[in-house]
What we know:
The chain is an all-alpha fold. It has one domain (7-76). Helix content is 91%, strand content 0%.
Amino acid sequence: MILSRKPLSIAKTLAGRRQGSMEKAEVRMQKSECRMKKSEVRSRNAEVGMQNAEVRRQNAEVRNSEVGMQNAEVRRS
Length: 77
């Protein structure tokens, strides 16, 4: 029964619980920050992926035009 406990041990128990809840809050904040960072990285990756696709398209366009010019030269000769 709680009444049989000494007041000091009750205070220690409450302090321990408070410490534990503070640690849990800290962990929750860290997890939240981690989720935000992951979200930022994903959006940056998507942006870079779109840029890569654009560069690939441009490269293909240049390659095709070069091949077209070579074909035209071959036809002329």
